[in-house]
Amino acid sequence: MRRPGTGTTPAVPRQLDRRSADPGAHPSTGPAATDGSDATGGAGEVRRSARSGAVGLVGAAVNGALGFLLTVVIVRGFGTDGSGALFTAIGVVSILGAVCCAGADTALVWALPRRRIGVDGDAARLLPVALLPVLLLTGVVAAVGALTADRLAPVFFERSDGPTLLRLAFLALPVTVAMTVLLAAVRAVRPVTAVVGIQYVLVPLARPVLLLATVATGAGVAVGFGGWLLPVALAVVAAAVLLLRPLGLLAGARLRPDGADWRTLWGFALPRAVSAAIDASSMWVGVLLTSALAGADESGVFGAVGRYALAGLLIMQGLRVAVAPQLSRLLGQGRTADAALVYRRVTVVIILLSWPAYLLLAVFAPGFLSLFGDGFTVGAAPLAVLAGAMLVNSGVGIVQTMLLMSGNSARHLQATVVGLALTVGLGFLLIPDHGALGAAYAWTAGVVAENVLAAVAARVAIGEPLLTRSVGWAALGAGGGAAVVAVLSALVAGRGVAGLALALVVLAVVAVGLLLDRRVRRTVRAAVTMLRPKPA
Questions:
Q1: Which spans are transmembrane here (predicted)?
Q2: Chain centre distance of CA 16
Q3: How far apart are the C-alpha atoms of 201 and 178, rounded to whole Å?
């Protein structure tokens, strides 16, 4: 029986209408809610995004802490030269892995929420459409790369173990790509806790443990890189197991795709293939360029600085993972106002949590980098520059996800190409004379250009206001308050660890003081209630 409020409208594809009437639809992608005329629809979507977002934020916090631990282990255990080589090898895997995925992972996140899951559904047919071409491509790249590693290694490494590192990177590509595509499918058909458990807990927890064992035993950088790669195989197995039930793979779901399946997925994926490679390589292009143009020491500094800069984006990544399938479903149903409302609420949360952190990072860059050792404190200026770039990046929120989930992968590609061109072009000009600082300026220019262009394209594509007054007030409050506290603390106690500690104490006191206000407490209670997952 058709549920009330799920009748077919011209904006809703037939496959969406079938899925909305499916009582077994998974809550992660959910049965379609009431149509856009329902006054409570937008509020319901915000609550759904908030509950998923809460899980994503917890995962992001865990991932961030473990990522920081991993960086500390790498730079402390291997020094500037060894960490530079290890970051370079990781960069090769990250860039080539994104290239070989060819956009299939994002295409699954976009397409699967618009299909029916289960044994009688049409979602399982997309899995071979996504997996088979990318695994074939990756196998060819891995074989060619492994055979030519001896000749390619001197471009990026000045070490004797350079060919071994590069060969390992190429041979790991098929497993890395399989993990990325399978996790994207898990993200689309399972509750957000599933992908958070693998991507944000299992993999980042295993890596520092294995790297610590490498350092403790005195093994070299190549063995450490192997330890960084090993958890990827565990993630592949876990993701495959999690897909069996929702896609009906054990119950005989049809896996043979038709021509429309190939056209639908790859029509979206091919433009995304290029932009995904650029997204994944945003920092690693800087690492590789710095290694080639300024040496391993500068590359190690930039790699450590970049890790700090990207850590704050884990908040945005956690929320993106949580709400992307929801945005795809809403936009596929033509409910652009509800999708824009979810975007704005998520963006406000990102700004409130990210901007104070990035302002502290900019002001107290010497204190943060001193945790890595004396050799990395020269990265204070590059870190301050990148913190400014990330204020822009987090300030527009998940605008790039919004653009992609609307199906506009070609417009997203245009923005990323402009960003990459600025990063690479300015990198060649600035890195030889300025090292890590030049790389930071180049990356900043690319980040700002890409995000501004994506925000404009998303506004045009969605046809709804995205960055409204509420977003502006959040930026003014979070950014202004944190900036005042950071600057005053730096003037009193300096930009080292002492000044950072003072700023954190003052911010904590201010937060407690705000909680004494009844209106603030009421708002916090409402947020906690909204973020708390409903009982099963």
A1: 54-79, 85-112, 124-148, 168-189, 201-222, 228-252, 273-296, 308-327, 348-369, 381-405, 412-431, 437-458, 470-491, 497-516
A2: 27
A3: 18
Q: Please provide the DSSP assignment of 294-307 as one string.
A: H-HHHHHHHHHHHH
Name the residue type at position 138. Answer: T
Give residue 41's pLDDT band: very low, low, confident or very high (50, 70, 90): low
Predicted confidence band at 173 (pLDDT cuts at 50, 70, 90)? very high
What is the rounded distance in angstroms from the CA atom of residue 479 to the CA atom of residue 314? Answer: 18
Distance CA 288, CA 279 (A): 15
Task: Output DSSP code: residue 197.
Answer: I
Q: 58 or 265, which is more confident?
A: 265
Residues belonging to the chain: 536
Angle at 45 between CA 44 and CA 51, to 5 degrees: 90
Chain centre distance of CA 313: 7
Residues 6+ apart with CB under 8 A from 17: 6, 8
CA distance 36 to 166: 52
Distance CA(368)–CA(372), nearest Å, equals 8
Q: 148: part of which helix (H) or strand (E)?
A: none
Q: Helix or strand or coil: residue 475?
A: helix
- Count other C-beta atoms under 10 Å from residue 450's C-beta: 28
Q: Would you call 375 exposed, middle or buried from its count of C-beta atoms within 10 A (0-12, 13-18, 19+)?
A: middle
State the Cα torsion 485-486-491-497 to the nearest 10°. Answer: 130
DSSP state of 39: T
pLDDT value at 8 more than 60: no
Assigned token pair, 516: 């004494």
List the one residue out of 382, 285, 279 whose CA is nearest residue 91.
285
CB 398 within 8 A of CB 323: yes
Could you give phi then psi for residue 29, rounded to 5 degrees? -105, -25
SS3 8: coil
CB hemisphere CA count around 203 (13 angstroms): 25
pLDDT in tens, 383-432: 999 999 999 998 888 888 888 888 888 888 889 889 889 988 998 999 99
Cα gap 285→299, rounded to integer Å: 11
Residue 266: alpha-carbon gap to chain centroid:
22
> What is the spatial distance between Cα 432 and Cα 287, in angstroms, rounded to a whole number?
13
DSSP 364-419: THHHHHHTT-GGGGGGHHHHHHHHHHHHHHHHTTTHHHHHHHTT-HHHHHHHHHHH
Alpha-carbon distance of 361 to 524, in angstroms, equals 26
State the DSSP code for 119.
T
Radius of gyration of the chain (CA): 23
> Contact 437/305 with Cβ under 8 angstroms?
no
Q: What does DSSP assign to residue 279?
A: H
Residues sharing a CB contact under 8 Å with residue 426, sequence separation 6 or more, in sequence order: 438, 441, 442, 445, 446
